[in-house]
From TrEMBL:
Keywords: Hydrolase, Protease. Gene3D superfamilies: 2.40.10.120. The keyword Hydrolase applies. It comes from Cellulomonas oligotrophica. GO terms for biological process: proteolysis. The keyword Protease applies. This is S1-C subfamily serine protease. It comes from the Bacteria. Residues 40-58 have a biased composition (Low complexity). GO terms for molecular function: serine-type endopeptidase activity. Residues 39-61 are annotated as: Disordered.
Length: 252
């Protein structure tokens, strides 16, 4: 993956005509409006990942992990003859947020935390409007971030915390480069564009501001290495709407 470069909002809009895809073939080519689908990956390592030095070291806990890393969750979607991986993040002790395409059509969901601990999944629910899902867990999640009160603006810093390729917990940085109409569902309205690097398996990752607050959820990327976020304003309104999420489809 080549290093990202800053882009003006107009450039971000133009690139939407080129190969926008979800967590399936991030960096590959497809034509709109094909929806994202999971991509199989190799076996997810069972050992705990190493802390990333790019997170604010002044906020590290005694085990060497930042609070932002502690709330990240690796997700394995075991389907009927398929395996895919994604990311998610806790919003309370027993609830995590991810993408619809990360959890859809599963026979089982396998969750693990930053320290390699397995967490039981109780139930998954998906939204129709946005590529969002929530998963209720049997076991307690280690940490939950604060949701920002408002969406970021162009030029604001962005940090993405997740499990690209289903492997080590990774932190990448960038900035908001624009806002565009969601190319996968125009009814959703505006989504955020950022140059923070993401890869297959990053779908569902939390995007954080400089204060560690959630400002969006990663769900897609285009051929120019620009990634797309469901903004926190949409996430907040859907979490507050009791009808926004329904039972996630399973594969059998």
């Amino acid at each position: 993956m080549r290093p990202p470069t800053a882009a003006a909002p107009g450039r971000a809009t133009r690139t939407l005509a080129l190969a926008l895809v979800g967590a399936t073939v991030l960096g590959g080519c497809a034509l709109l409006p094909d929806p994202p689908t999971p991509v199989p990956t190799g076996v997810v390592p069972s050992s705990a990942p190493e802390p990333s030095a790019s997170v604010g070291e002044s906020r590290l806990s005694p085990d060497g992990f930042d609070a932002a890393q502690r709330m990240a969750v690796r997700i394995r979607n075991v389907g009927c003859g398929t395996l895919s991986t994604g990311s998610g993040f806790a919003i309370d002790e027993h609830t995590l947020v991810t993408n619809r395409h990360v959890v859809a059509d599963s026979a089982a969901l396998e969750l693990s935390t930053y320290d390699g601990r397995d967490v039981g999944a109780e139930a998954a629910s998906t939204a129709d409007l946005a590529d969002l899902a929530i998963v209720r867990t049997v076991d307690a999640l280690p940490s939950a971030p604060v949701l920002a009160d408002a969406d970021p603006v162009v030029g604001d810093a962005v940090t993405v915390v997740g499990y690209p390729l289903g492997r080590q917990l990774t932190v990448t940085d960038g900035q908001v480069v624009g806002q565009v109409t969601d190319p996968l569902n125009a009814n959703l309205g505006q989504v955020l564009v950022t140059d923070a690097p993401v890869e297959p398996g990053s779908s569902g990752s939390a995007a954080l501001d400089a204060e560690g607050r959630v400002i969006g959820v990663v769900y897609a990327k285009n051929a120019d290495d620009l990634s797309f976020l469901v903004p926190v304003s949409t996430l907040r309104s859907m979490l507050e709407d009791g009808t926004a999420f329904g039972p996630a489809p399973t594969c059998g």
